[in-house]
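input
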Amino acid sequence: MTSSHLRVLVANELEDRIALVTKLVTGLGHTVVAGSTDVAAVGALTAEELPDVALVGLGTSSAHALELIERIVREADCPVIAVLEGRDASFVNEAAKRGVFAYIVDGTPEELQSALDITLHRFAEYHNLQGAFGRRSQTERAKGILMERHQIDEQHAFDMLRDQSRRTGRKLIEIATSILESQPLLPTIKPGPVRVVEDGNVPAP
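output
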């Protein structure tokens, strides 16, 4: 995400603070797509406008600001930044629990731009990391299906995924995803009875 031109949502309990932050944001060349004081409406507004970043200010009520943050985080695929007039460790701690990604203390336009740049960069890294964990999880689940269906161990299941990827020229995650999507159509393999071997020899199938 480049911060050269951003779509920004501004939320605060106080209209005058929304106006002030809006002026700062537009002065940096960004677009304020919405400004809201309404906790009940801000979630739907976020889903509708799809901002690149949301700036939530602390007004007279920390509870109001925290609820704004919570509603926006629930709907947004963007970082939410708390904007404070002064340092407030207690509020920052509570905001972090509700999913705020960063906070800034009122400063110059240059400081706001720097905060936006850093936050968006870290947010992108965070999503890349989440994506990596998600891809690993899908691959692990696909291996589990292959292990069950073919009665093979984990290494052989991975080799099957890798070999299919090489043969088809498709990415490993694409092969894993296709297996997961087709799983409901595959028959369930019921394990047969286990034969106890007393002499240490492997029984013939």
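quick obs: The chain has seven helices and five strands.
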